[in-house]
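Lecture notes, unit on protein representations.

Consider one protein chain, 268 amino acids long.
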Amino acid sequence: MSAVRGKPRAYHPDRVRDALLAQVEFVRLAAHGLTPQQRAKPSGLPGWNVCALLAHIAGQIDALPRLLAQPAPPVTRPETDLNRWAVSTAVIADDLDKRTRQDAEATPDQVAAIDAAAEEMEAVLETAVRDDVLIPHRFGAMRALDFTVTRIVELVVHSDDLTRATAVPVRLDRQALAITVRVLADALAAKAPGASTEVRVPPFAAVQCMPGPRHTRGTPPNVVETDPVTWVRLATGRTTWSAATAAGRLRAGGERAAALAAELPVLG
């Protein structure tokens, strides 16, 4: 299903709830199985070891109950949607890095912190998947359901980070992976609006983007296709266009398709 350009798609509360619970459980199980040596390894993210990554994951889970506990924002309509959240995260990257380093130093047992955050999250989950509840956010008021979707994106991305850092596969829930792929694809379409290029991430998403001549029928002249995990890594800066192409995991056809590389990553 293609996204409406500039407008994020809707996500069903039941699927969001189930995907979040599943991915939290998968990352918890993986964290509990790590040895001290694995926790000390570089995470692949600048300046973070795996302990810091685990502290960051705990913070991303805890953000849901923490924001829901704050006073409701003084507005009646959302000010931030999933597209704006995705393309704005780079703005707060330095703050997140600083906070993560502080959390890692202040929390000697990051696995216990993940467990505690997961328990608090489960206690508020029914409120978290409502689209008629607004929560405060530094980018502007968000629907609770939308913010819960962002937690899924964070968990999928960082579950993959853990896999790459420790060589211990962290399972990705299929629905959580599908949601993440779609959020990042829709954000790309909003960031680079147009209809000259089609980005395909089977079986989860296909969006049109990039300015230029619009195709009206048949196969578009500019097509980019990749698998879900490679798309997540491309859209979050974990891999590059050239590396994915060289590995045979990204196929780009048409003179405008390669220009898409300049629009990546989507999520900072």
